[in-house]
Structure formats: C-alpha cells, structure tokens
C-alpha cells in the first residue's frame, strides 16, 4: 500500500529493481468508504433490527443477539464468554432447538478473531439467523442436531477500533507491549497482540513474531491475552459437559478451508492431527457444495500448503487440546480484489454459499460416523398432524 505522495518514488524503485507489479486496488480510501454504503438491492435481507445489506458495528450485533433471545426464549440465549482487554463483553449465542434432550452434541463457531475481517461477523450472524429461522429441511437438520455456541466477534476491542479509528486493524488492543516502532511503522502498531498466534499450541514456533510492532505478534507468552484465555476456557468447559463435534473459525480472505495443524510443513506430518483424511474429505465435499451456487472456488488443505505455516492459532489449539473431530479455519471471500474491504453486496452471496458448505460438511461428517444426523423436527410433526386431521375429517364425512 502506497500513499499518493510516494507514488512516483515507489514506481522508480520498482523500475530500478526491474520488479513487475500490478495494481490490485487503485484507491484504498474509496474502497473503505464504499464498504460503508449499504447495498439497497439487498435491503429485504433482514431479520428484526439487523440486515445483511451492510456491515454492522459491535453494538448493533450485540443488540441483535439480545433481540433474538427476547423473540425466541425457548431455544435461544445469549452468553458472555469473558471480557476483552478494554473490558468489553465477548458475547455470543447458544441455540438449542431441542432443549429437552439430555446430552446434546456441540458445535462451536468462532467469528472475527481478526478485527478487520468484517465478512466474518456478517457471515456468522447470517448463520445464526438461518439456524434459528430457516425452513429448509437440511439447514434445519444441521441446526437441530447440535447445541450451537456461536460467537460473531471474539475480538470486540479490535473490531470496535476498525469502526472508530483504523479500518485495517487486525490484532486486539493490548497496551502491555507498546514501544517505539521502526521508521515507517506507526507506534500504534505495537498496541496489540495477534490473537490467532497467542494460543498455547506450538506457540511461537513458526509463522509468528516476537516483535509487538509486527501484525503477527504472538504476545509475551501463550495465552497472555484475556480474549484467547476466554475462548480456551469456554471450549474446555464445554468439552467437560459433552462432545464438541464441530469447531470452525471464520476469517477472511483467500477462500480456503484449512485443516489442522498449521505448523506442519511436511505432508508426512499431516496425520499428526489424527483424522486428517476424514477432515479433508469433509472439507472437500463442503468446498464442492459451496462452488455449486455461484462457482466460487475454495481450496482445501494444511495452512502451510494453501496459505502459510503458522503457530498459536485458535483452531489448532482446539484440535490439540480437546480433539474436536471436525476442526477448521475457513478463509471467506475474496481472492484479493477487495480483500478485507469486500463490498456489502457480497455479504449475502458469501453467507449463502458458506451455509451450503456447512450443510454438506454436516452430512459428510455424519456419513463418516462422527454423529447420527437425524431429520425430524417441524416438518415431520406437521405432516403427522395433517394426516391425523385428514383421517378425522374423512371419518366424519363418512
Ligand atoms: Zn484472520
């Protein structure tokens, strides 16, 4: 990214170094401004106070979660997993369509660990809406077979900061490691830890930085941050209560479904995560289903193969600590045309194709024996009652 006043000098450097370059985004500020304009053609895509024609700030998301609880008291409740550095709630949503069942299986969705990845929060809130209200048999089945624990924004300070001050902020807002950064790097850059490098599995072994001025700063030690501690404590407590079958962390961008572990650089070590072949099959089928709707292509694999090797990521820690069978990190749209500044008009398409993937992943995991997918619910009950009434009516007519 180059500011207009440095344009000529930058081009001269490229020329001298004989470096070929292409411009991906011509005017970043315009892309930032455009991202805040609602896409009116999608104004109908809303539920209660919330819509998917635009991106929403933290307050709007949290207010909407409260509204859901008020409107669906039998199946929905909000939950706070902990507090952020700046004392904000890390608020989520528990959805259980069959509260009477004794031992539910759990699914956990983690959104927006990285602050600037707005499409993550938008997609995760859409999934909540679909799981809560959809009449589609297959979405309904996936929603009903688990007790879902869904957190649209697990980095609330960073997310708020992307709305108030710095659109491209990635980390949390920890002040503990603030220092003077090298020339060309704003000192504010040291005001935060990369939460997806701060978890206590293979911490700081690869693809992470010990320099707080770096965007991949892993923190002074594993779990130094309240946000990563809150997530890990929540997962451990849930695992004590029963079986977590799915854990999916939503990021952007690059269109990937990433399988643990991310520090693994040799394919011989892919099997370190135990059921890598099954996770791979489920992910491939999910990616195929996703592609059917709009032709959006997602790649599947280890982080080292499809993105870069890294350590201290939340989903890798989840896999290692409690061995959740289906653990993934999904990098949503796009491939870099807009990057983190994905236009509001792409929220609904991204969300729709992502749900397609989740439905197929749910079916595939069941087919591989990880749980028994049951279709029952409203449609079957409705059908039985209709047949009964028809029977009564027929008898009366006779
Ligand atoms: Zn990310």
UniProtKB/TrEMBL annotation:
It holds the Pfam family Peptidase_M14. It is found in: Secreted. SMART domains: Zn_pept. Its cofactor is Zn(2+). The keyword Metal-binding applies. GO terms for cellular component: extracellular space. Residues 54-365 form the Peptidase M14 domain. Its main location: secreted. The chain crosses the membrane at residues 377-397. One of its GO terms (molecular function) is metallocarboxypeptidase activity. Keywords: Carboxypeptidase, Disulfide bond, Hydrolase, Membrane, Metal-binding, Metalloprotease, Protease, Secreted, Transmembrane, Transmembrane helix, Zinc. GO terms for biological process: proteolysis. The keyword Nucleotidyltransferase does not apply. The active site is at 331 (proton donor/acceptor). Involved in the digestion of the blood meal. Belongs to the peptidase M14 family. PANTHER family: PROTEASE FAMILY M14 CARBOXYPEPTIDASE A,B, ZINC CARBOXYPEPTIDASE A 1-LIKE PROTEIN. This is Peptidase M14 domain-containing protein.
């Amino acid at each position: 990214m180059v500011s207009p006043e440095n344009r000529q000098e930058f081009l001269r450097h490229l020329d001298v170094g004989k470096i070929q370059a292409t411009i991906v985004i011509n005017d970043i500020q315009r892309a930032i401004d455009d991202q805040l304009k609602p896409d009116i053609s999608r104004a109908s895509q809303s539920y209660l106070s919330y819509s998917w024609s635009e991106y929403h700030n933290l307050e709007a998301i949290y207010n909407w979660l409260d509204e859901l609880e008020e409107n669906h008291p039998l199946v929905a409740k909000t939950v706070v997993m902990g507090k952020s550095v700046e004392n904000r709630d890390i608020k989520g949503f528990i959805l259980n369509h069959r509260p009477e069942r004794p031992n539910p299986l759990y699914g956990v969705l983690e959104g927006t660990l990285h602050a600037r990845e707005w499409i993550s929060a938008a997609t995760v809130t859409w999934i909540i809406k679909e799981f809560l209200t959809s009449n589609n048999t297959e979405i309904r089945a996936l929603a009903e077979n688990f007790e879902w624990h869904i957190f649209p924004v697990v980095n609330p300070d960073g997310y708020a900061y992307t709305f108030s001050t710095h659109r491209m902020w990635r980390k949390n807002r920890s002040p503990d490691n603030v220092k003077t950064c090298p020339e060309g790097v704003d000192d504010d850059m040291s005001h935060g830890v990369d939460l997806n490098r701060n978890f206590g599995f293979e911490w700081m072994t690869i693809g992470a930085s010990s320099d707080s001025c770096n965007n991949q700063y892993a923190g002074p030690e594993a779990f130094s941050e309240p946000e990563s501690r809150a997530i890990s404590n929540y997962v451990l407590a849930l695992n004590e209560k029963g079986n977590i079958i799915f854990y999916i962390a939503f990021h952007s961008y690059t269109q990937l479904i990433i399988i643990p572990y991310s520090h693994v650089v040799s394919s011989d070590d892919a099997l370190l995560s135990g059921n890598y072949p099954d996770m791979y099959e489920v992910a491939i089928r999910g990616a195929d289903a996703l592609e059917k709707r709009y032709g959006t292509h997602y790649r599947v694999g280890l982080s080292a193969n499809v993105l870069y090797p890294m350590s201290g990521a939340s989903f890798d820690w989840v896999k290692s600590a409690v061995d959740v069978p289906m653990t993934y990190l999904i990098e949503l749209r796009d491939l870099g045309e807009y990057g983190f500044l994905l236009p509001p008009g792409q929220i609904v398409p991204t969300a729709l194709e992502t749900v397609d993937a989740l439905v197929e992943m749910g079916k595939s995991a069941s087919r591989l024996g990880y749980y028994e997918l049951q279709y029952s619910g409203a449609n079957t009950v409705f059908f039985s009652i209709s047949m009964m009434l028809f029977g009564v009516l027929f008898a009366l007519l006779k």
